[in-house]
Amino acid sequence: MEQYEPESLSAAQIAAMRRSLTSGRGALTRRSLIRASGMGALAIGGLGTLSACGIPPAKREGDAAAASDDHSAEEKQINFSNWTEYMDVTDDGKHRLTLEAFTERTGIKVKYTEDINDNVEFFGKIKPQLAAGQDTGRDIICVTDWLAARVVRLGWAQKLDASHLPHAYANLSAQFRSPDWDPGRAYSYPWAGIPAIIAYNSKATGGRKVDSVSQLLDDPKLKGRVSFLSEMRDSVGMTLLDMGKDPGNFTDADYDAAIGRLQKGVDKNQIRRFTGNDYTADLDKGDIAACVGWAGDVIQLQAGNPDIKYAIPGAGYVISSDNLLVPVKARHKTNAEKLIDYYYEPSVAAKLAAYINFVCPVDGVRDELAKIDRAMADNVLILPDKEMASRSHAFRSLTSKEETAYEEKFAKLIGA
Amino acid sequence: MTVTKEAPPAPVTAELKVRKPSTRKRLVPYWLLLPGILWLLVFFALPLVYQASTSVQTGSLEKGFEVTWHFQTYWDALTDYYPQFIRSLLYAGTATLLCLLLGYPLAYLIAFKAGRWRNVVLVLVIAPFFTSFLIRTLAWKTILADGGAVVDVLNTLHVLDVTSWLGWTESNRVLATPMAVVCGLTYNFLPFMILPLYTSLERIDGRLHEAAGDLYATPATTFRKVTFPLSMPGVVSGTLLTFIPASGDYVNAELLGSTDTKMVGSVIQTQFLRVLDYPTAAALSFILMAVVLIMVTVYIRRSGTEDLV
Amino acid sequence: MTQQQTGGDVRLTGISKTYGSFAAVKPLDLTVPQGSFFALLGASGCGKTTTLRMIAGLEEATTGTVSLGGQDITGLPPYKRPVNTVFQSYALFPHLDISENVAFGLRRRGIRSVKKQVDEMLELVQLGDFAKRKPHQLSGGQQQRVAVARALINHPQVLLLDEPLGALDLKLRRQMQLELKRIQTEVGITFIHVTHDQEEAMTMADTVAVMNGGRVEQLGAPADLYENPRTTFVANFLGTSNLIEGEVVSADTDIVVAAGGGKLRLPTDRCTAPTVNGGKLLLGVRPEKISLAHADDADVIADGRNRVTGRIVDSSFIGVSTQYVVESPAGKALQVYEQNIERDARLTPGAEVVLHWNPAHTFGLDAAQDIDAGVETVEDAA
C-alpha cells in the first residue's frame, strides 16, 4: 500500500484538500469562525443597548436598487473571484492562458483572485456589503448552486443581458439550462458541474464492486469503511435517489426518511465519517473502502491509483454546479458578461475542462477536447453523454425556512 | 491636552511639582493604558456584547434578527447539544492530562539536562508550528491509518482489544474514534504545555535541589516536595493554555473523528455558517465560555499558586 | 546517623577536583578536628567552595576520599551524609513557610512530630514569631538565620557554611558573625565555614586554612597565621603587610639584611625561608607594629630597632588610628598605622620621617615568591 505523506501530495490532491476543508460542510479554518464574529462586531457600529443590535433583513427589494452603473466602457477591467485550482494555468503557474487570451482579444484586464475557499465562508465575507447595497469590489463570483440560489433569492445578483451572451445562450448544455432557482439562466451561468457518484477502492473492497447507496449502507463487508459527504445536498440527494425519490421534488417526510436511513448507517457503525474533500486521501489509502464522492476528485485519484473505481448508481446521481454571478453594484457588468460568454466558446471551454476535470457545461466541446486529450473527451464524468446526462438529478432549491430546518437535521445526523 | 509636549520642569519649580503632581501627570498612566483598553473594547468587549445580544434574538436571514429576549435558546442549545459539551470537556481534559504527562519530563529535561542543546531542543518543540495546523492534523491520519504500523503493533499487542472494550477505539481501528481525536488534540497542543512548564522549571534555582538533597531528600522526594510544587505556575498556565483552546477545538474532531466524536466547536461552526442559526451559535459560544470560565476559576483557586507567580 | 552521634574528625585525603583540564582543587589533605570552628579562607576561585561541596557530597571528588569519624563517605550521595549546608544564597524553599523550611530535614527522615524541635530551633535563632511567614517576607539576615536553623535542626556532625554572610551588609555581618559563633559554642558541632573575608575568618574560626590556587597555603590559629605568615600570599591576604626585599648580609641568631640603604634584622626563628649570605630575602612587618618619628627626632629612637627612612606621601585619618603611606628606598608604599594617642602635627604628607620597629616583629619570607600575591585588589574587595 502506498504511503500517504502530506509532502508528497499530488497537485490534484492538494487541490481537492483545499476545496474540501471548505466546500464540505467542515469549513475548517478557524478563520471562518473568527471572521463571522468579527464581521458581526464591526457591523454593530454605534451600539447602544443589547436590544438595539438586531440583524437587519438581508433581502433587498426591487431590481432597480440592484442595478449598478456600468463602467465597462471606460474601465476595461474585471474583478473575478474564484475557487483555488479552478482555472487553467501553465505548469510553472505563471500564466493563465485562457484568461490571457481573453485580455488579448478584448483589451479587458482581468484581476483574478482565488479568494473563495468555502461557500459559507465566502457568503460571510460578501454578506455585509451586499446586504448594505454596496459594491463588493467583485464583478464575477463563482459559488455553488445552493448558495447561488440564495444570492439570487436575496436579490443580490444582477440580471444578465442575454444579448451579450450569444455563445453561452447557444452552447449551455440542456442538463444545466433551467435550474429551479434561476429558470432560463437569467442571473447565472454554470462554470462547472459537480456530479456526486460512488467511488471505491477495489483493493480495499477485495475486488468487490460497489454501485449503490444501499450497498454502502448495508453491505457488511464495508462496515466502518464507508464515508458520505458532509455536503447535505449530495449525501441526502443520493440517498433519496436510492430510495426511489427525486431530489428535485420531495417532501419533508421524504427528507426525514432519507435522514433516518442514513442515521441507521451511523448507528450501526456502517458509516465511518461524513467528510469534506479529505475523503480522497482516505480512499486512496484504503481506510475508506467506498464512499459518495465528487467526480472531479475521482478522476484525479484514478490518475495516481488504478484501484480507484467509480460507479454511477442505477438510481441516478446528484449533480450540483458552481455558477458565475454578477453581484449587485458591480462596476463592470458588461465586461463580466463578455468573459462569461468567452468561456462558452467550445475551444476555450475545452481548455478549461482539460485542466479542471469537472463536468463541462458547454455543448460542442468534444472535438476540441479530443484534440487535447482523447481519453478525457470520452470520459462521461467530464463530458456526459446523453445517457449519463439523463441520469443526473439536481437537488431542488430550498426556501430559507427549509434550508435552516434541513441543515439542522443533517447537522444532528453528522454529529454537529 | 498632549502629554508628550510637556517639558521637563524647571529646577525652580521642581519641588513644587513633586509635592503636587499636576492633573496631567496623574493622567499619564491612563493615557498609556488607552491603546490596550481600546483594543480590548473593540476586539473583546464589543464582540461579546454583540454575541450576547445575538443569543437572545430570533428571526431569519431574510427577515432579519431582532432582540426578543428569547432565553429559551440557551436551554434548547444545552438540551440539544449537551453530549457535545460533555465530550469537549472530556476530550480536552484527557488531552490536557496527556500533555502534562508527556510534556513535563520533556520540559524537565530541557530545563535541567539539555545543557547547550537547550535552545536546539526548544526550537524542535515549536518546529511543528512551522507547518499548518491542518497539515499537522492530517499527518495523524497517516500515522493512525487502518493498515499502518501503529495500528498493526497495537493490534498485535492486543492493546486495541482493551481500548475497544473501553470504547476508546473501534474494532481494530484507531481513526475515526475518540482515541484518534484525543491523540490529535494532545499532539497539537503539546507545545503550549511544554513552553510554560519549561519557563517555570528553568526559573527554579538549582541550589534548591542541592539544598533538598543536603536535607536528606532523595532525588524522587526532591522532585515531589520541591521541584514539582515550584513548577506549579507552569503546570497551571500550561494546563490552561492547553485545556481552553482544546475544549473549543473542532479541527481534530472533524478530521480524525467520526459522527460520535464531534465537539462543541463543530456545533457552533455549523450553526453559525451552515444552519445560519446565529442565536443558537451565540448561545452555544456563551455556554462554552461560561463553563470554561467557571472551571478555570475553580482550578486556579484550588491550585493556590498565587504566591509563586 | 544516630550511631554516629559521637561524631569525629572530618578528614580529607588526597582530595581533588578537576573540570576538564582545569584543576579547581589540587590534591589536598586536611583534617578538621571535631567540634572546631574551621574556616576555609581564600579569594574567589581558590577552590574553597569546591572543597566544601565535596564534603557535602554536592560535588564528586576526582581523586581522594572524604571521611567522617573514620567512616569513608566519599561515595555517599548528599542525602545520606550526616552533614548539612548553609548555602550562600540560603536556598530557602520559597513555597514553604519558615517552620516548614526548618522542618524539611526532619520530615525527610520520617520524623512526625516536628513542632517542638522547630520551635526550639527558631527560638535559638530568635525567629519564633516568624514561623508562618514565607521566606520572601523576611530580611536577608532573617533568611540567613532560617538557613542556619534549617541545617542545625538535623544535628549534623558537621555544619558546612558556604559564604553564609556574603549577602549581608557590613553591620549585619558583624552581628551575625558573633551570632554564629555563639550558636557554634552552644551546640558544639563542627562548623566548616567558607569565606573570602579574612576578618570574618579570624573573628570566628579556631583554625583557618588559607587557600590559594586550589591548594592550602597555610593552616593554623588566626593569630598564628597573622603573626607568622609563611608565604607572601598569606602575608598580604590576611591583613596588610609591608614587604621589603633585601640581601642577606649575615645569618646568626639574628639575620641581618641590607635593604634600602640600611640594615634590618630579624630573629632567625621568624624566617621560614632558607638563608644564604648574599641571597635575597623578603622582610615583612605589619603596619601597626611600625612607629613613626619625624626625621628631626631620629636621634631619640632607641637603639636596636629596625629603621627605615622615608617621606610621607599620604595620610588618612580613620578615627582610632591614622594610616600613613610612606615612600622610602626600601619600598615604594610602606603602610603605617599610628594609634591616635599623641598626634604629631608635623606628620603630614611631604614630611621626612623615620619608620622604626622591634626586630622581633619582622618576619622573613622566600624572595622567590610574587611579592604582591594575595594583595586585595579593588575587584576582590567589592
TrEMBL record, chain A:
SUPFAM superfamilies listed in its UniProt record: Periplasmic binding protein-like II
Pfam families assigned: SBP_bac_8 (PF13416)
Assigned keywords, A-Z: Periplasm, Signal, Transport
Cited Gene3D superfamilies: Periplasmic binding protein-like II
Subcellular location: Periplasm
N-terminal signal peptide: none
GO biological process: polyamine transport
A GO CC term attached to the entry: periplasmic space
An example Gene Ontology molecular-function term: polyamine binding
Protein name according to UniProt: Spermidine/putrescine transport system substrate-binding protein
Organism name: Streptomyces atratus
TrEMBL record, chain B:
Identification of the protein by name: Spermidine/putrescine transport system permease protein
A GO BP entry: transmembrane transport
Alphabetized UniProt keyword annotations: Cell membrane, Membrane, Transmembrane, Transmembrane helix, Transport
The ABC transmembrane type-1 domain, residue ranges: 85-299
Organism name: Streptomyces atratus
Primary site of residence: membrane
Organism superkingdom: Bacteria
GO CC list: plasma membrane
One Pfam family in the UniProt entry: BPD_transp_1
Recorded topology in the membrane: Multi-pass membrane protein
Family, per entry: Belongs to the binding-protein-dependent transport system permease family. CysTW subfamily.
Automatic annotation (TrEMBL), chain C:
Entry's EC annotation: 7.6.2.11
Top-tier EC class: translocase
A Pfam family matched in the record: ABC_tran
Reaction catalysis annotation: ATP + H2O + polyamine-[polyamine-binding protein]Side 1 = ADP + phosphate + polyamineSide 2 + [polyamine-binding protein]Side 1
UniProt-listed Gene3D superfamilies: 2.40.50.100, P-loop containing nucleotide triphosphate hydrolases
Record-annotated ABC transporter domain positions: 10-238
Gene Ontology molecular function: any one: ATP hydrolysis activity
PANTHER family linked: SPERMIDINE/PUTRESCINE IMPORT ATP-BINDING PROTEIN POTA, SPERMIDINE_PUTRESCINE IMPORT ATP-BINDING PROTEIN POTA
Family: Belongs to the ABC transporter superfamily. Spermidine/putrescine importer (TC 3.A.1.11.1) family.
Function, as annotated: Part of the ABC transporter complex PotABCD involved in spermidine/putrescine import. Responsible for energy coupling to the transport system.
Subunit structure: The complex is composed of two ATP-binding proteins (PotA), two transmembrane proteins (PotB and PotC) and a solute-binding protein (PotD).
Protein name: Spermidine/putrescine import ATP-binding protein PotA
